[in-house]
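agent> fetching stored inputs for the flavin mononucleotide docking request
agent> found them:
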Amino acid sequence: MPGVSRFCVWANVHGTFASLSHPEEKVDASWQRVREQIVLAEKLGFDSTLIAQHTMNPLGEDLDQLDAWTAAAAAAALTEKIEIIAAIKPSIIHPTVLAKQALGIEEISRGRFAINVVNAWWKPDLERSGIGMLPHEQRYAYGTEWLKVVSQLMQGERTSLRGDFFNVDDFVLRPARSWRNRPRIYMGGESEPARALAAQEADVLFLNGQPEENAITLIADLRRRVRPVALAPIRFGMAAFVIAAASDADAEDILHWQWQLDAEDKARAGNMIDRFLEQTDQHSVMWQNLRDRPHIGPNGGTAAGLVGSYDTVAERIVRWNQLGIETFMLAFQPFEKGMEIFAQEVLPRVRHLETKR
Ligand SMILES: Cc1cc2nc3c(=O)[nH]c(=O)nc-3n(C[C@H](O)[C@H](O)[C@H](O)COP(=O)(O)O)c2cc1C
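agent> prediction call returned; pasting tokens
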């Protein structure tokens, strides 16, 4: 059974997670904005914040994109309670160095740090930097070896691995385990190798926002898989874009308007959308699923169905929680105002419904 719902927000490192032309939210990926957003999230009672990782901004190369790991270290120093999750594409950094950085932020945050392993879908970041992007299957073979090294080192284990990609010889990191066994490991991905890797190494699998029937199948598949005895049963998170308003009709109106803004963005960007499709690894299963489910917001966004009155959204969250989703990775537009409305109106309703279970 999943625990009570945990509420998390994306850190706004892209500048926006929905429309580029929302009249109440300018595209702003400055540290000043993200810093205030994370501090506000903690004050409002959110459990966690996720800092996505891209080097160039996939929404437009000339848009600002904050670096995930420097932002994570700074956020860790500024906060007291909130969990800080930083995403990482394995190919951009050697696992011994990444594990060292993770343990560093674990120290700064006093045991509140987590990594989100993402095996990449956007080609320009890896190809045009010269880092290179392996084909999907090989990318996961690499990611599997990489995460094995990272996980062992984060646990303070003396690590040796002679594999296809790495040659680590009796390597060990200190300090480690000062706060707990190791930083938490999240993973995003829906493909077969992503599921296999999550079953082997991850504590939490992040799903995209998606219809219930798909999520039920995916969760059941993961729960059937063999897991190392040392790991607790896998837990699940889901990305969702929230539109919560006084009534269902008001929320539907806002959604309709967001679709209009989306269409205007696309019209303004000309063939940018086609270019974006060309720039994506079409073998990424998560990407294929996203393309087939029209939505507003990051990673499936409104496909998670959290659009409606405060009561409706709270009821849907409780329903998702019963289906196995514990961590809700939320986005809003305008972001900070959406966080405040959620904390004031939706969160208490969820907690109330949970007491009745
Ligand atoms: C909540 C969530 C956050 C994600 N964050 C990132 C990210 O920061 N950077 C990235 O390249 N991919 C991110 N992804 C996407 C995937 O983890 C991954 O890059 C890829 O699409 C895996 O595809 P697969 O289904 O083929 O395994 C995220 C996915 C989810 C569900």
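agent> quick read of the result: The two ends are 13 Å apart (CA to CA).
agent> awaiting further instructions
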